[in-house]
Amino acid sequence: MRRRSPRRILGGLAAVTAALTLFSAASTASAAGSVPTAAPAASAAQAADAAVQPLSTSTPVVFVHGYTGSASNWVTAMSVFRLNGWSSSNLFAYEYDSYGNNVTNAQGLAAFVNNVKARTGASKVAIVNHSMGGLVSQYYLKVLGGNANVSHLASIAGANHGTTYAGACLIYTTCQQMYPGSSFIAQITAGDETPGSTRYATWYSACDGIIIPYTSTRLDGATNNNVLCQTHIGFLADTGVLGEIARFVAS
């Protein structure tokens, strides 16, 4: 993981020297509202509506970093999710080999998600990715059938349709796969880009500077959010955007 590489390409380039961490886990917490005794009793319809809400802040979240990134990229995001009601024990960061093969990385994500489900007892997880993490996530959901295990997919400046900036690191398989027009890109974008019952959303910006073209992040069938002006790495510290993502996952 310490091989020399283009340091300004995708993912957590500014944070690559940070220590690697597999899980961010702490004590379990839960939040449950109760109706005050003085309040009128809820109607049967209201109770039914509340009972069928598909998600809450108890949904485990798996964060997937970008090229040369690590779990440390998600420190701010995890803090924002905790402020929005998540327990640290339901926030996880998946790490993979930025220089290997995104097929293998996606297979590793599949195993990681299964492990999170086993640890938490959840039937589904939410995935939040950044940059090349979009390719890893899309391959898992679409090609490996992972959408059955994922309630929400949030892609932050994802290289979902590739980026010409990857031309600077084509010595590595991951960068070859990330280049627009690659067979890998063709595989994850052919047909339905947002398969299954998973809810998909993206956040992208013309000020990105790394995802070229910046509209590459958009997914057909997703809720695509155009952020006025944010840099590629800046997204990782943008508490406004991260708060939107937390609320999207809780919806």
Average pLDDT, to the nearest integer? 85
Total number of β-strand segments?
7
Q: Give the % helix.
A: 25-40%
Question: What's the shape?
Answer: globular
| SS element count, helices | 7
The parts where pLDDT drops under 50 for at least 5 residues are 1-54
Q: Structural class, judged by helices and strands?
A: alpha/beta
Quaternary class: single chain
Sketch the topology as an H/E string, one letter per element.
Answer: EHEHEHEHEHHEEH
- The first-to-last residue Cα distance is 37 Å
Query: Beta fraction of the residues?
Result: 5-15%
Compute the gyration radius: what is it?
A: 18 Å
Major sheet characteristics: 7 strands, mixed
Describe the strand arrangement of the main beta sheet, using strand numbers.
1-3-2-4-5-6-7
Describe the structure in your own words.
- The chain is of the alpha/beta class.
- The protein is 29% helix and 14% strand.
- It is built from seven helices and seven strands.
- Residues 1-54 have low confidence and may be disordered.
- It starts with 22 loop residues before the first strand and ends with a helix.
